[in-house]
Backbone:
């Protein structure tokens, strides 16, 4: 079983999709060992408690900078003996030592088809505002490995939805969450935990399932 920690900052609907998929046996060989929040008031913590998953808060506001916050996250992951880290609506870009130590072992979900509408400053509803302002006809979400550069790591799964004429940022966000994010994030976690992902440079190869 791959000991997995899910890092969150907000509502935690992606965390809920992971919990649900795990309960239905759709995420294989995975132990949901911890949920760690960067905010003490994140509703995601309630979702984790309801599912019986141990919760921890590493409050971003208590740290002078991103480096010391990243160090605290690293120490917490190490003390919990975590193998896989999942960023599920986690709103801090992590730096070393987490990124270095967990190379190709941190999965992030981003609500656009990267490399569009991603990177520093693109998060949550802002991503969908920018996509609509640009006038794209498709958008979607991306599950990828995290590197030191925000949203720039190797792509694991991407899926698209059509943008509708009458979409608002919140209708587009909702559709991308329901139709893409809540599906591809659990899928990517399972692929990792089943040992089916092979990373060559920035290309992720997905191996066939063994019977
Ligand atoms: C999700 O749409 C997620 O993809 C996005 O924030 C939302 C969090 O919702 N993440 C980012 O923008 C990261 N760059 P949730 O807390 O309900 O899962």
Residues:
């Amino acid at each position: 079983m791959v000991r997995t920690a899910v890092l969150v900052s907000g509502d935690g609907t992606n965390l809920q999709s992971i919990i649900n998929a795990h309960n239905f046996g759709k995420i294989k060989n995975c132990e949901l060992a911890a949920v760690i929040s960067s905010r003490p008031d994140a509703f995601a913590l309630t979702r984790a408690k309801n599912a019986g998953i141990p919760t921890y808060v590493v409050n971003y506001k208590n740290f002078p900078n991103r480096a010391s916050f990243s160090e605290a996250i690293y120490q917490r992951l190490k003390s919990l003996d975590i193998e896989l880290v999942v960023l599920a609506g986690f709103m801090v870009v992590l730096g070393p030592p987490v990124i270095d130590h967990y190379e190709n072992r941190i999965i992030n979900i981003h609500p656009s088809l990267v490399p569009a509408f991603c990177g520093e400053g693109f998060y949550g509803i802002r991503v969908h505002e920018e996509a609509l302002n640009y006038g794209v006809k498709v958008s979607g979400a991306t599950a990828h490995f995290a590197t030191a550069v925000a949203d720039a790591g190797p792509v694991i799964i991407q899926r698209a939805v059509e943008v509708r004429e009458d979409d608002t940022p919140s209708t587009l966000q909702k559709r991308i969450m329901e139709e893409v994010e809540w599906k591809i994030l659990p899928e990517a976690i399972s692929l990792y935990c089943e040992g089916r992902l092979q990373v060559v440079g920035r290309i992720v190869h997905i191996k066939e399932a063994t019977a």
Summary: Strands lie at 2-8, 30-37, 55-57, 84-87, 106-110, 138-145, 155-162, 197-200, 203-206. The helical segments are 13-23, 43-50, 66-79, 98-101, 125-134, 169-193. Residues 174 and 181 are 10 Å apart (CA to CA). The pocket of glycinamide ribonucleotide is lined by residues 10-14, 44, 88-89, 109-111, 123-124, 127, 177, 181 (CB under 6 Å).
